[in-house]
Amino acid sequence: MDRDQVRVHYHVIERIGAAVSDEVIIRELVGLDQTMTIFPLYSQVSRLSEAVVCQRLSAMFAQSNYRCIAAYIDERMVGASGFWTGTQLWCGKYIEADNVVVDSAVRSQGIGGKMMAWIEAEAERTECAVVRIAMVLGRERTHQFYTRNGYFDDGILMVKALSRGAAEFPEYVSQQV
């Protein structure tokens, strides 16, 4: 992807949609305790227990390249997204959004776009070459959202569950003999 193709839209506070008349404020969550406040929202899209989410977030923070933001309307969390910063040979420095979640009661009202704009602005600020997102195949609305926001299909993420992941991800266990 060409650097000219990366679009950045930065709106930290902006009015959105007719159904949501309040301001959306994006804040970075700092540390494990603040980040664990995403659990009720994350539970809308995941069956992981609070203990497992806490354990995994703790391990993610230990890697020193994971951060998390949340979107609020009147102090009510309505969206959250983690993101990683890394470097790879093909693109250099990048940010990858991770588990972008918007409260089901306020989806399709611009909140996801505002979180992605915040992440894109942070990528620009930290001199990243690209922003990327891995998404599950078959989620057409999610795919349309990212396409509308300037993202391009650039490959397929291949997954193979190993013995420790077989129970949690049976769909990724090889059926080959």
Description:
The protein is α+β, with helices and mostly antiparallel strands. Helices cover 26% and strands 26% of the residues. It has five helices and six strands, in the order ββαααβββαβα. It has helices spanning 31-35, 39-42, 50-62, 111-125, 140-148, and strands spanning 13-15, 23-29, 66-73, 76-88, 92-102, 130-133. It has a six-stranded mixed sheet, sandwiched between helices. β4 and β5 form a beta hairpin. The longest helix has 15 residues, at 111-125. It starts with 12 loop residues before the first strand and ends in a 29-residue tail after the last helix. 22% of the residues are buried. Mean pLDDT is 84; it is low at 1-21.
Strand order of the largest sheet: 1-2-3-4-5-6
Radius of gyration: 17 Å
Structural class: alpha+beta
H/I helix tally: 5
Give helix and strand order, one letter per element, not per position: EEHHHEEEHEH
Distance between the termini: 38 Å
Assign a percent range to the helix content. 25-40%
Oligomer type: single chain
Strand content: 25-35%
**Mean pLDDT, as a whole number?**
84
How would a textbook summarize the main sheet? 6 strands, mixed
Could you tell me the number of beta strands?
A: 6
* Unreliable sequence segments: 1-21
Shape: globular
Task: Compile the SSE list and pairings.
Blueprint: E1 13-15, E2 23-29, H1 31-35, H2 39-42, H3 50-62, E3 66-73, E4 76-88, E5 92-102, H4 111-125, E6 130-133, H5 140-148
Parallel strand pairs: 5-6
Antiparallel strand pairs: 1-2, 2-3, 3-4, 4-5
